[in-house]
């Protein structure tokens, strides 16, 4: 229904098409564009009531009771007062509507907070304030540093002197690397931002699409001579949900609302129905079948005499208590209690329950799919290790590195960097010079830019002129880079300045070392390395520095016998390893390279291949300088939490937008991969040519199939059912064409779902890399469809919203990436470690309590239905109710409601025990607390007790029929109270209060029930002994059986509590 409502809201949408956007003139739009609003609500004002009612009446028993209540308007079918049917149904619906309305209002307020954020807009009247929801296509919006970009925009101007800005995209694609963005050259050259309104220019942009990594457009200025035309690419874009990391920017809005890249990568919110609710719905269908059978039997025993079809309907109404209408009320109220308990738990502070309809789902999770950045890790890099081959420096020995650097720059002679380094290949250098060369290479080979900000004492211009340390902030496209540069600063070689053509370092003695940047070769996912060619201004020496992953650098550096071994050792410690190398170039060598490089860049055909070939001509026989080890700090207690989840039988999948090497390091660091486990890497796209194919060809599909089969055999040689001890890493490589979002989903997940899932589900853990937001949701959906097990998705960024909403249970982590995932999730936590307690304690308790509550409510209804069946069969199969009016309503409400509902406070073990023994969680994965077996046991108990009570009352009553009602009803109430006491495993003071309160209410109400019960008879000794005997016969055998079972076949939890 929710999706239907969404379709109604979207009615009248046109197919997206390219657009022309005039700068600062939204009134010149060619078509109607959607409003720039964020909407995470399931309903709107018009669809709320129909949607909620539809979701309620698609439950079988709710629809059944609606038909039942409507049938009482027919005189021939009426068995009692209308209120006995309509009041319970109305109460059920009212509770549901109020709960849904409260959640919708909370969701509306959260969306309103985001949509009400204020931004500055350039207009002809100057700068005005505008809400995010009022931003239109064509508006010129000013976005400050650390402010969220409100819409998809083209970058026009920046306040940064270097003419660029950095962008944090972790909420969009999950990558922590900052992205460098460049403004349109024409608009950046304008004197002021207000001049943007004085020029006649427009942007021609492609139609809205889902691809967040590519963009095609042009910028045109018509009032210049000649007209200016610039091509636009992804480097000129500012997508919504990203955050400006440097300076103040001005952009023109291209896309808004549902046409945003971030929104198109987010699935629509849906109403989640818990597996427990579906199972209860199935049990009610079984009860309905029993109801029909009993009614037919009653009519058959009358030999279908007279108007037998009306008799069938009357019996259906008479035995309608077999399906308890109070079941839904009790379960819904129980969910509210569970949510309240979760919010009040002091050991998981800040936890918020945003969807109170599925707390039982937390108790049956089989697959946990988690994001990496900001969820498992803190996104804070720490430099841990420097390895020079013969010696390694850790955190405890960094002072030695600092002393080596200090000794180099405090010697009276010039630093080795100034002298001719041709002798370096002939003689063994001292340890100080080796350390110095390594540190200098790390300080130069990066894309970090130092930025100076005012600190209240020193203004920005003065700080930049004197390189004030207290005002300097490092900005880069990767936190790894920042960690490396911060480390070089800590040991004495400080990066103090950088622009497009030069780098400045400061030595321990305060001298400024100037280097000219001749060429930069940025890091790419294909090359897995970056390089830089610099010229030392003091000596004129040209040096080519390079750093990259060990898998590619091993074939570039000179032969050595320690690289592979030490890289493996550092990787096993969970460190992100980089290999650093250098090569000295003569002026002639560099000039020759530059000529070939420029020529290759001007090529029209195969430009990237020719450029790569020229660069590779330099990447030969490079001198290996060192290895660096950087650790991405894990969230607190991630390792024990993952260990707890594994011991509970939950398989953990890590879905991340980061590259394979980063994900592998984090998996090892978090102990997702143990030392005894192998890593099976599944790759599909091996080069850029195959990645750029227009579609999955036949040989690609064959390659996938062969890899799947070989991986499956490698993971489990010689067996099929044995679970292998391996980890599967799915490397999702994005392609460059908008037609394909990823090769792997199109080939593997589309054509070989069974083979892929068979392999993946055998592994104790799976790591999927380079996942787009929609691909994360696709993997979750595939798991649900292929395994039928419950999934839980955990994330903290906007790129995790689709996955969270698709999973059976979504958990959002409030962190550095904002609250978008938290607001869209069913449950919100502040730290990943809280997930263990949320599942092991609250999830387990919620499921076991609801299972006990639902079966006891069914038992309560079956007891009275059994008594009605016995009564009717004894009195010639008459369709006459045994209890009427207030008795039948009071039985399910004030007489037994409080003790039965108090089962939501019951628990079999203490929370400390549940956390200490996560194996207890495994029992829930099989659904044993609520199964056909336990259901059948409760049915047999109900039939036994109902029969004993009714036949006992018939045998022991003396004269008047009203005595049967008094004896049987009192015995029934006492039996239910005793059965609640039998079911409870850990007493709570509220349970005792509920038992005494219900008993007191019944005794007090006997005075007012003279219409149904003989008040004088219940005061006699005869009444008391008859009720006592019947109650003992109905309950005592069950108490004996429970004792024997606990004595000779105790459940697992009782062994821990004894």
From TrEMBL:
It is a multi-pass membrane protein. Residues 25-85 form the P-type ATPase N-terminal domain. It comes from the Eukaryota. Gene3D superfamilies: Calcium-transporting ATPase, cytoplasmic domain N, Calcium-transporting ATPase, cytoplasmic transduction domain A, HAD superfamily/HAD-like. InterPro entries: ATPase_P-typ_cyto_dom_N, ATPase_P-typ_P_site, ATPase_P-typ_TM_dom_sf, ATPase_P-typ_transduc_dom_A_sf, ATPase_P-type_domA, HAD-like_sf, HAD_sf, P-type_ATPase_IV. ATP binds at residues 371-373, 481, 523, 547, 576, 656-658, 770, 776, 799-800. Its cofactor is Mg(2+). It catalyses: ATP + H2O + phospholipidSide 1 = ADP + phosphate + phospholipidSide 2. Mg(2+) binds at residues 371, 373, 796, 800. PROSITE patterns: ATPASE_E1_E2. Its main location: membrane. Residues 122-259 form the P-type ATPase A domain. It is found in: Endomembrane system; Membrane. Residues 823-1050 form the P-type ATPase C-terminal domain. One of its GO terms (biological process) is endocytosis. GO terms for molecular function: ATP binding; ATP hydrolysis activity; ATPase-coupled intramembrane lipid transporter activity; magnesium ion binding. It is an enzyme of class 7 (translocase). The chain crosses the membrane at residues 82-102, 278-302, 308-327, 857-877, 883-905, 935-955, 961-982, 989-1009, 1015-1041. Keywords: ATP-binding, Magnesium, Membrane, Metal-binding, Nucleotide-binding, Translocase, Transmembrane, Transmembrane helix. The active site is at residue 371. Its EC number is 7.6.2.1. GO terms for cellular component: endosome; plasma membrane; trans-Golgi network. PANTHER family: PHOSPHOLIPID-TRANSPORTING ATPASE IIA-RELATED (PTHR24092:SF49), PROBABLE PHOSPHOLIPID-TRANSPORTING ATPASE (PTHR24092). Belongs to the cation transport ATPase (P-type) (TC 3.A.3) family. Type IV subfamily. NCBIfam families: ATPase-Plipid, ATPase_P-type. This is Phospholipid-transporting ATPase. It comes from Lamprotornis superbus.
């Amino acid at each position: 229904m929710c999706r239907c409502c969404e379709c109604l809201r979207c009615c009248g949408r046109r197919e997206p098409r390219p657009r022309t956007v005039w700068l600062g003139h939204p009134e010149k739009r060619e078509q109607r564009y959607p409003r720039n609003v964020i909407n995470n609500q399931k309903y709107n004002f018009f669809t709320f009531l129909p949607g909620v009612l539809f979701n309620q009446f698609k439950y079988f028993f709710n629809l059944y009771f609606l038909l039942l209540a409507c049938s009482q308007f027919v005189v021939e079918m009426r068995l009692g007062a209308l209120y006995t049917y309509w009041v319970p149904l109305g109460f059920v619906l009212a509770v549901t509507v109020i709960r849904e309305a409260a959640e919708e209002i909370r969701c509306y307020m959260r969306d309103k907070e985001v949509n009400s954020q204020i931004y500055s807009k350039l207009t002809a009247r100057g700068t005005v304030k505008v809400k995010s929801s009022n931003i239109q296509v064509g508006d010129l919006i000013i976005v400050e540093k650390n402010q969220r970009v409100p819409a998809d925009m083209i970058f026009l101007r920046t306040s940064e002197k270097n003419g660029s800005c950095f962008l944090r995209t972790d909420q969009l694609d999950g990558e922590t690397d900052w992205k460098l963005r460049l403004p349109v050259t024409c608009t950046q050259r304008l004197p002021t931002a207000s001049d943007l309104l004085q020029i006649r220019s427009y942007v021609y942009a492609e139609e809205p699409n889902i691809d967040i990594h590519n963009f095609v457009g042009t910028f045109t200025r018509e009032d210049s001579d000649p007209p200016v035309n610039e091509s636009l690419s992804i480097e000129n874009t500012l997508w919504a949900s990203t955050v400006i990391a440097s300076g103040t920017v001005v952009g023109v809005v291209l896309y808004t609302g549902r046409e945003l890249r971030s929104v198109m990568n987010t699935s629509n919110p849906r109403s989640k129905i818990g597996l427990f609710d579906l199972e209860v719905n199935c049990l009610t269908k079984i009860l309905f079948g029993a109801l029909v059978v009993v009614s037919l039997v009653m009519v058959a025993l009358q030999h279908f005499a007279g108007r037998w079809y009306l008799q069938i309907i009357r019996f259906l109404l008479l035995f309608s208590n077999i399906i308890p209408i109070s079941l839904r009320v009790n379960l819904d109220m129980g969910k509210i209690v569970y949510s309240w308990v979760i919010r009040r738990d002091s050991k998981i502070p800040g936890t918020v329950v945003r969807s109170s309809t599925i707390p039982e789902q937390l108790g049956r999770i089989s697959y946990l799919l988690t994001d990496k950045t900001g969820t498992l890790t803190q996104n804070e890099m720490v430099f841990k290790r420097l390895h020079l081959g013969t010696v390694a420096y850790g955190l405890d020995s960094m002072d030695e590195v600092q002393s080596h650097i200090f000794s180099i720059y405090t010697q009276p002679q010039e630093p080795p960097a100034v002298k001719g380094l041709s002798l370096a290949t002939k003689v063994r250098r001292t340890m100080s010079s080796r350390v110095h060369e390594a540190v200098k290479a790390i300080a130069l080979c990066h894309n970090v830019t130092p930025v100076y900000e005012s600190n209240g004492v020193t203004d920005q211009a003065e700080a930049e002129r004197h390189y004030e340390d207290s005002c300097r902030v490092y900005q880069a496209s990767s936190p790894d880079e920042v960690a490396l540069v911060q480390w070089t600063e800590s040991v004495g070689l400080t990066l103090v300045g950088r622009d497009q053509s030069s780098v400045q370092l400061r030595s321990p003695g305060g001298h400024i070392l100037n280097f000219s940047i001749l060429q930069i070769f940025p890091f790419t996912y294909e090359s897995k390395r970056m390089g830089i060619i610099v010229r030392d201004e003091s000596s004129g020496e040209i040096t080519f520095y390079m750093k990259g992953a060990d898998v590619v650098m091993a074939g570039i550096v000179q032969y050595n016998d320690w690289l592979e071994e030490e890289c493996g050792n550092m990787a096993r410690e969970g460190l992100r390893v980089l290999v650093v190398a250098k090569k000295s170039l003569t002026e002639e060598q560099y000039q020759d390279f530059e000529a070939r490089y420029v020529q290759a860049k001007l090529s029209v055909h195969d430009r990237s291949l020719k450029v790569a070939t020229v660069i590779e001509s330099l990447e030969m026989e490079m001198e290996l300088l060192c290895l660096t080890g950087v650790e991405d700090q894990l969230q607190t207690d991630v390792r024990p939490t993952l260990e707890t989840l594994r011991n509970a039988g939950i398989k953990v999948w890590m879905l991340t937008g980061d590259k394979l090497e980063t994900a592998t390091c984090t998996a090892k660091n978090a102990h997702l991969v143990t030392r005894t486990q192998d890593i099976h890497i599944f790759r599909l796209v091996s080069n850029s040519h195959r990645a750029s194919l227009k579609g999955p060809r036949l040989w690609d599909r064959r390659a996938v199939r062969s890899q799947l089969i070989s991986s499956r055999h490698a993971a489990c040689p010689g067996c099929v059912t044995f679970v292998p001890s391996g980890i599967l890493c799915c490397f999702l490589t994005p392609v460059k064409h908008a037609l394909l979002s990823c090769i792997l989903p199109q080939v593997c997940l589309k054509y070989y779902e069974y083979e892929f899932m068979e392999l993946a589900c055998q592994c104790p853990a799976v790591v999927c890399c380079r996942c787009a937001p929609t691909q994360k949701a696709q993997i979750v959906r595939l798991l649900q469809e292929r395994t039928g097990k419950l999934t839980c998705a955990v994330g903290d960024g906007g790129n995790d919203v689709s996955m969270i909403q698709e999973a059976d249970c979504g958990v959002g982590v409030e962190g550095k990436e904002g609250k978008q995932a938290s607001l869209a999730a069913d449950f919100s936590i502040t730290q990943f470690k809280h997930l263990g307690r949320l599942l092991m304690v609250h999830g387990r308790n919620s499921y076991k309590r609801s299972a006990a509550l639902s079966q006891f409510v069914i038992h309560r209804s079956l007891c009275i239905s059994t008594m009605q069946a016995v009564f009717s069969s004894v009195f010639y199969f008459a369709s006459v109710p045994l209890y009427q009016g207030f008795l039948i309503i009071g039985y399910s409400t004030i007489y037994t409601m409080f003790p039965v509902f108090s089962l939501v406070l019951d628990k079999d073990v203490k929370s400390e025990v549940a956390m200490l023994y996560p194996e207890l969680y495994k029992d829930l994965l099989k659904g044993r607390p609520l199964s056909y077996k336990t259901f059948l046991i409760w049915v047999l108990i109900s039939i036994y007790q109902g029969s004993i009570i009714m036949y006992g009352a018939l045998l022991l009553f003396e004269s008047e029929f009203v005595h049967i009602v008094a004896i049987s009803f009192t015995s029934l109430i006492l039996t239910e109270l005793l059965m609640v006491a039998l079911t409870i495993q850990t007493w709570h003071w509220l349970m005792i209060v509920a038992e005494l309160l219900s008993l007191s209410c019944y005794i007090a109400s006997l005075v007012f029930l003279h219409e149904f019960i003989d008040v004088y008879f219940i005061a006699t000794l005869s009444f008391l002994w008859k009720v006592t005997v019947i109650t003992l016969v109905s309950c005592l055998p069950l108490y004996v059986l429970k004792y024997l079972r606990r004595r000779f076949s105790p459940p697992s939890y009782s062994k821990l509590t004894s």
